[in-house]
């Protein structure tokens, strides 16, 4: 009897050991849009087994990014990342999408990196792996127990890309699948310059014809030629496209792009980390020269990272030196990170609200303000960058800018603001138009 019991215990031990060596890792959906949540479940573990889940991405710049969480399986040998808390790693707690937003460059990487998608018709490939025990380093020296390769896309199936180079305007138009006409968005990034396409591609994946505008590229466009009529021409190009509904257009600007958006005053406007205190009323070159004249206000932190937020402080009381937001007649959504170290967005939002209140149009203004968020508020589940390399406009000189923010609250700001931006665009470009059409009937 004793021998039979001992044999049974050994058989059970072998079975459990084999089970623990062959965990079943599931990531659903395995292929989806970058703003789509996924669900990670790990089965076939021992009860209360310690494991590490790790994500790894090899960027287009050939850098490796990773995040990892430490988990303990339940009594059934299951880890459900949506429901279970990480007890350590690059994040702690119940954070279903943290394997994406808590990504950092692996130890030994180049300093000041920023992860940005260049080719939006190729996926952002993320490998999710499970390791035995709670591991925090040396992953390349350890064999993973299970691995799943996932794809995160900025373009939904059927999205088209059209190069724009007409009337001296350069950019990329992304068109949703289908016959149209579609509501349109003119998408403008900030002072980093270049042609940034991934947000416009993602907007097209949600049904908006989106024009990613190029307006800061010294090798392709003379800054002195970029006056207000450049942006007006871009708006007209988008408006006149046969697949775009001309009466359903919005502007979306980040940082310096918000200054342009507020100056144009379209049918509706989304400003992320922007200000009205730097109007673009002449040329972009003049606006940058004005900023360069205030560079003595720039300070650096203990790591020699540049802090620019003081450039426009204090917010001037002279209305002639600000965008006349009191005259705005369209809905405006402001997205503000309260730890923005690059631009005085908190003070700008307060002054805009006061100006619009005095003019009686503050009902048009919605402010989303996020404690602990920094300047670079991007689409959700992308990594947070407290600082990164930056090439100064008009100078062949690279610096490291402090953007601000803390990882977890910044991740919340990205997820929450993106959801509300899509709702805002839906309300003012789609539902309002449907209501007007029904009223005509």
Automatic annotation (TrEMBL):
Residues 229-430 form the BAAT/Acyl-CoA thioester hydrolase C-terminal domain. Gene3D superfamilies: Acyl-CoA thioester hydrolase/BAAT N-terminal domain, alpha/beta hydrolase. The keyword Signal applies. It comes from the Eukaryota. Pfam families: BAAT_C, Bile_Hydr_Trans. InterPro entries: AB_hydrolase_fold, Acyl-CoA_thioEstase_long-chain, BAAT_C, Thio_Ohase/aa_AcTrfase, Thio_Ohase/BAAT_N. Residues 35-166 form the Acyl-CoA thioester hydrolase/bile acid-CoA amino acid N-acetyltransferase domain. The keyword Signal applies. One of its GO terms (biological process) is acyl-CoA metabolic process. Residues 1-21 form the signal peptide. The active site is at residues 255, 340, 375. This is Uncharacterized protein. It comes from Denticeps clupeoides. The gene is LOC114765332.
